[in-house]
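@here heads up, posting the sequence + SMILES for the adenosine-5'-triphosphate run so it's all in one place. Ping me if the SMILES looks off, I pulled it from an old spreadsheet.
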Amino acid sequence: MPIAASPAPRRALVVVNPTAGTLRSGVLEQVLRLCRQHLQDVAVHRTTHRGSAAEAVRAALAPATAAGAGAVPDLVVAVGGDGTVHEVVRALAAADAKGAPGAGRSRAGAALAIVPAGTGNSGYRMLWAEQPWHQSLRATVTGDPARARLRRVDLGRLEETGGPVLLGACSGLIAQGLIAARSVAAAGREKYARALPDAAASFTPYPGRVTVDGQLLHEGATVLANVGGGRHRGGQYLVLPRSELDDGLLDVCVVGDEVAPAEVADLARAGLLHTRAGVVHGRGRRIRVERTDGLPLLFEHDGELQPLGFTSMTVGVLPGALAIWGAPREEETRVDTQGAVPLGGVAAP
Ligand SMILES: Nc1ncnc2c1ncn2[C@@H]1O[C@H](COP(=O)(O)OP(=O)(O)OP(=O)(O)O)[C@@H](O)[C@H]1O
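bot reply: prediction finished. Complex structure tokens:
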């Protein structure tokens, strides 16, 4: 849902992860130049450790800072990968929940813009498709209504940890792929493209159950169950072809063992996963993914592996919880440039 007026931002906090996988030299300077050209006030924070992005956003939006009025950002530009974006989202969502003065143009103040510099960049892609970042950032900082729109999108809340879910949460194979990616020496989408077959080669489907608003969707051997969020995972795998970011509902795709783990990557990259027997889709407000043999469930959300202490992942929707800049027409973000998804999206069964 676009926010009616999409007011142009005035004060930005730019949070950059200097260690992000595909950050090219000169990008931060270009980001700062664009922001300073068009905004009243621009602060920059270079992250120094995991958690540093969230700390910087929390500090910038803290009531003490806000008391000094003018300095509170109404835009947070995250320059990095999906992990950095996730940290910023966590801090914005927490500020929003507390009603901090700088909190949301989510509810009250700061909105997110993304400059992609990571491995998958799924967050950027679901808002801007393949548009070059300097075009989208220029449109955002100038508040150009023909090219950028301030949108309020849904988040999920992972009940086991309380963490906010933006891109999606996935059990099984995609989580295993994150482990395999640690030993792949490549950057960008190539890293996951190489890691997923490695993960699939040794992956055994687990006994699972998935319920949507208390109704059983799937029970049996499970390759993965992805809840979102975004349509793509890893920036290239189409798992939720009909997911809307702002419909107040969560989509889920479950892949049963009728599909061999080794087939999943190619099918999802071609946008054909949903055509296979054993793949089911659901939509609802609360989605519970369980492992039924008592062993821990391997799952991730937003590209971060979750601790192995849970036998379930349960995601409830937080409708419209995040204000974020994206392309003005939702159709633009539905185009899969690899040709698999027609404009308007494919019809899931
Ligand atoms: N300066 C830093 N040093 C070490 N880790 C950092 C730093 N800044 C951020 N991090 C952490 O590194 C992780 C990965 O960062 P980020 O997502 O920006 O890049 P990436 O790994 O290249 O991309 P992706 O998340 O798409 O795989 C995040 O969890 C983030 O919290």
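MO: DSSP finds nine helices and 17 strands in the chain.
MO: One more: The radius of gyration is 19 Å.
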